[in-house]
Design brief:
It contains 10 helices and 16 strands. With 342 residues, it is α/β, with parallel strands linked by helices.
Length: 342
């Protein structure tokens, strides 16, 4: 089936989560109430990609109750097809939760997971339509999902193989979480699927610590193509500045072009909520690649999406294609900019 005949540009697989965040800079142990957000790495990716104009769907398993409907409503709000959701009708069905504490320098942000025995943990291949693998140009998942137990890992690996066989591009974000698995177990699980990956998103820290790679960043990125055949490798670079601000940039390596693509980092970003900024970056890269088949555009869109997400509360970005293009064009023109869009 050709790309133009496929129903989706992008399908993601992963666990949707409820995020309960301590307000402002309060501590989880002290706060009197929590702010409620919908989260989950792959859901963040497909939601952001939908805002950029891609046709996206999301495979997950949700409890058939009001909490499950909360997630589905958020998916529909962002334009993500929720017909791939598997409903868990068991009386003990539950949605995974994570608690978040912002931190304040030098106190680091903190995440506490409560996701054992969630509905998603019981997802099986039989729950998923057998012909789903022929319906999408790109299939995306991440290392968090691989770490959610043997059952989920088997489902993920098998779906990657099926989508790959059907001709889909496979996108994978390493997304290592020490709260879920050890570096050794994560490396073993990811190395099994690396030969199947087309787009790999991996931090320099994970490359050096988990995969035990040495050398300069660009040679490390290229090594994934040399050792495993990965077509595209992307690494983001964040730097903490004074007053809680950050700079953000990235590098993309293309195996087919044997070339690196980057741009000047965005500097002095005001951080409102950094959760989901890496997912927004992934969405920007995938969307730009599918729209333009141009890695320079992919870097521009990825960086712009991540930067904008850092300025938005919650796990998903509300930025649409127009806002992203406007930021990229204003940056290129330089000089003074309008104070307000009006």
């Amino acid at each position: 089936m050709s790309e133009c005949q496929k129903q989706y540009d992008l399908i993601g697989l992963g666990e949707a989560l409820l995020r309960l965040a301590a307000p402002g800079k309060e501590r989880i142990s002290d706060c009197a109430c929590f702010e409620k957000w919908v989260g989950g790495s792959e859901l963040n990716v497909v939601a952001a990609a939908a805002r950029l104009g891609l046709d996206t769907g999301f495979i997950t398993k949700l409890p058939k109750n009001e909490i499950g409907e909360l997630i589905r409503g958020k998916m529909r709000f962002y334009g993500v097809d929720d017909r791939l959701v598997v409903e868990d009708t068991h009386r003990n069905a539950r949605l995974g939760i994570y608690y978040y504490e912002n931190g304040a320098s030098p106190r680091k942000p903190c995440v506490v997971y409560d996701r054992s025995n969630s509905s998603f943990a019981g997802i099986k291949l039989d729950d998923i339509p057998s012909n789903i693998d022929v319906k999408s140009i790109v299939f995306h998942t991440c290392g968090i999902t691989l770490a959610l137990g043997e059952n989920v890992r088997h489902t993920v690996v098998e779906l990657i193989k099926r989508f790959r066989t059907a001709g889909s591009l496979i996108s994978f974000d390493v997304n290592y979480r020490a709260n879920l698995t050890s570096e050794e177990d994560a490396r073993e699980a990811i190395e099994e699927i690396l030969p199947l990956i087309d787009f790999l998103f991996v931090s320099e820290e994970s490359s050096r610590k988990m995969f035990r790679k040495t050398g300069d960043l660009r040679s490390i990125m290229k090594s994934y193509s040399e050792e495993y055949g990965v077509k595209v490798v992307s690494t983001t670079m964040r730097k903490i500045l004074q007053n809680g601000r950050q700079s953000f940039g990235s590098v993309i390596y293309s195996r087919d072009n044997d070339a690196y693509y980057t741009e000047e980092p965005y500097d002095n970003i005001e951080i409102v909520d950094r959760i989901g900024s890496g997912d927004a970056y992934v969405a920007g890269v995938i969307a730009a690649y599918l729209k333009y088949r141009d890695f320079r555009k992919a870097v521009e869109f990825g960086d712009a999406m991540a930067v904008l997400k850092n300025t938005i509360c919650g796990d998903q970005t509300g930025s649409d294609l127009g806002e992203v293009i406007r930021l990229i064009e204003e940056r290129k023109t330089g000089g003074a900019q309008q104070e307000m869009n009006r």
